[in-house]
């Protein structure tokens, strides 16, 4: 079978498969948010108009929501609306949910991206060192640091960090993205204050934004490091016990060459997919971190919408982050397949 | 276990296995430390009335926000309640949530996975798609959305976490069931006239147990952190319940001037989840059939 199929055909088929899986999973996500939004609340109309509404107001909303139609019809219209980017209107901001989400998204992206970069910069070398000195003190030390990262509640560490580094030591700025004093100075280009202030040459704004973002980025980075160092360690341990490592050593390659040039290179392929996946996790983890730091991101938006009973905003946010998560998931699969020479050639 | 080894009976073999498991476990100091934390937690929960110096609910407005000291070992909160007593009583809520989630999500996942793996066909395809969707959606967000719809509260928080926690069990159980369902010994039992139900219950589920137990212990720390996170956001246990996450949430207002209100319950969460992580790692090293096969 494999002998007759051309590589292009195989690649096309793989891509189609990935697309179909993504589409089905996304449809499942739509069904899930639909279910949460329309089926679980005892009366979706009451959650909009409130307990004391007149029958007239109640009926109006009832028909506006299309609740008189059969469930499957409601579901299809919901799906088509989502496909067109219509997430409904937020009850609190009275703007379309998608507009809200897009305006809050850059802040989250900034935090998660910088956190991930820090996590990779620390976690991968730590994992390599841990595997290289397996069961020696550097390994134990790195594992303990990682274990603490796994066990500590992130929101609590954020509060303690604010107390120590902001209130006691005054090394960093407090909650929020930027001081009120600096708001509105920078012309929005990329919607990331750090980058925009650099482009505009506003160094004072940049430093202020930087001192605000340092602490949350360090926290996100720490959690990402805890995860990545553990993963890197286990991947590297698998590689370092292989025979090619012994061969390389026997041939006289130096240790750095063996560990980084040979073992890490082989571990890199699964590692890249793990890093891509953990990025989605960081977007999700932002809910708690953003709440603690009053960070104007998507997590904060979802959490504050929860309290105002703004179900459209909550589900819209859940859908957006979930969709990104699913797409990252699929992308990392595709990435794995393209990076790994074995799956590239031997797939049947 | 070599085939030449002879054992007197199934019962004594099982007993020997348990004894050897305990012996090997005792040799792992970190695992023992985790076990110690778990025992301490159970002790606090069981004897909260005796250990706690104060009533965890009774306000004492003259002693509001007292710093840690002789009167209140770990300080008092904004209503003058002793934080130490509240943390001790809070261990009950933590155990309640962990227990509820583990005891519902593991069996649900196990059942779905085993049925899916044993019967195959469209049932399997359907269940696995559903599992994939749940696995693909970020857990905390999904739990948040569920609680938003169900309404806040400790039981609803547990339900929400359960709804996000079952898929890995289903995946695992399905893989085990697929591996076992056509093995010779299962076919032998089938030929002997056993029903599918009997096979699932007595031959497939027991094969999944060690993976399930490993997963359960590793999951517990995550459940504690998620529950505390929900409590912190304000969607888990509601005041005046002494749930640790909710306590941090109220203490947040005083973080700069009365640091102990938020800090102390956080330590409790940290220590307990560290304990479960250590325990989980140790149990996995001993029980995981895949790790065993590798070494």
TrEMBL record, chain B:
Entry's transmembrane regions: 30-52, 93-119, 140-165, 185-205, 217-238, 258-279
Domain ABC transmembrane type-1 stretches: 91-280
SUPFAM superfamilies cross-referenced by the UniProt entry: MetI-like (SSF161098)
Gene3D superfamilies registered for this protein in UniProt: MetI-like (1.10.3720.10)
Gene Ontology terms, MF aspect: dipeptide transmembrane transporter activity
Pfam families in the cross-refs: BPD_transp_1, OppC_N
Topology term for the membrane: Multi-pass membrane protein
Broad class of where this protein is predominantly found: membrane
Subcellular location: Cell membrane
Entry keyword set: Cell membrane, Membrane, Peptide transport, Protein transport, Transmembrane, Transmembrane helix, Transport
Designated name of the protein: D-ala-D-ala transporter subunit
Protein origin, superkingdom: Bacteria
Family membership: Belongs to the binding-protein-dependent transport system permease family.
Any one cellular-component term (Gene Ontology): plasma membrane
Biological process terms in GO annotation: protein transport
Xref: InterPro entries: BP-dependent_transpt_permease (IPR050366), MetI-like (IPR000515), MetI-like_sf (IPR035906), OppC_N (IPR025966)
